[in-house]
Amino acid sequence: MVSDMKIISKEVIKPSSPTPIHLRNLKLSFLDQIAPPMYVPLIFFFNHHQLTLQHFTHSKISRLLKQSLSKTLTIFYPLGGRIQENSSVDCNDSGVEFIEARVHTQLSELIQEASMEEIKKLQPVESSLHDEEILLKVKICFFDCGGISVAVSLSHKIADGISSAAFVKAWSDSCRGESETNILRPIFDLVSVFPQRDLSAFEKIEKLGMCEEKLVTKRFVFEKEEVTKMKNDFNTPRVVEAVSAYLWRRFMDVARAKNSSKTSFAAIHAVNLRPRRSPVAIPEQMFGNCFRRTIAFSEAEEEDDDHELVVKLRWAIARIDDDYIRKLEEGEHMDVLRGSVDLLKNGEVGLCSFSSWRRFPVYEVDFGWGKPVWVCTTTLPYKNLVVLMSTPCGEGIEAWANMMEEDMKEFEQCLNECH
């Protein structure tokens, strides 16, 4: 399908205005320092009806996207810079990569199949691993049917998923013609909340848990009715809790079916810190890696039921509170970090991870030709990781699971048996 792709152009887009001298050096926060060296991938799809109705030609789309990207980079100025020794960003306006390509296939077929091997070809990087200096790469693909995809890969060293989505939203607002005063401006001051730490005792901490083996990624869709049933069965009003517990149970079932010797199973969940500090929350527009991972455990011999798993997840997430954040700000979590290192290196615990992107404003992105018909991510270099995203209608959940191929077959079979 996407194998027949032709690159039209590749160029560097720089900020439309130079970054002021006093903003040329941005220190990374402690949470940025330990962030993984990889890209956060997002791909937005727009069908031909949206474009043809408003007479958007390929050349016009290209021109508008480049011009608005250049303007947006003056607001998100670190994105056009380069990271220096995992310590700071040299905001030198070196620019970002912008690629255009033609794809000789139908966009509707690609969405329907949702084959990750095909979808990955649309992204501007060959791998999610961040092995280059460029912090932001963009790729626009023009399909034979007239539809387009806009793929954004932003370095996780300076942005979490929320920050990445905020950047794309701001870029689309600019492209649509919104004035700069109406665009939510980012705050680049996370280091004042979470000061840098000496990580010399934690060699390659940012790569901890990353997998160099080949992983497969599949999408599992839970429609509104299924999600509602899960919430009722598990006695929880929270969608993410219900779906996470349901999938955690399937991970454990697969491990037990393989006669696993694991003494316990852990579910790791990413938690956004911004709204969890009180009485003054961290501003929602704070740019950077403003999240931490929490861990819920289920002992192998206990065989918790689904409701008990929900309770354990809820308790683990609730631990990320104001007291936790204050200690994190003051540097009292180095022992916790050391414990996390030991856990990930300990083969006795079966690990699965969850990251919810459900509330990201990805379906509010509008470059001027309407909102996307579909938004997805791509394979991330973590084994047994699930990214949760909303379905286009907003009422269901798409779970993108990254696993070893042999485990994926068992996992998929387990899910099918439960339906």
UniProtKB/TrEMBL annotation:
The keyword Transport does not apply. It comes from the Eukaryota. The keyword Acyltransferase applies. Keywords: Acyltransferase, Transferase. It comes from Perilla frutescens var. hirtella (Perilla citriodora). GO terms for molecular function: acyltransferase activity. InterPro entries: CAT-like_dom_sf. Pfam families: Transferase. This is Vinorine synthase-like. Belongs to the plant acyltransferase family.
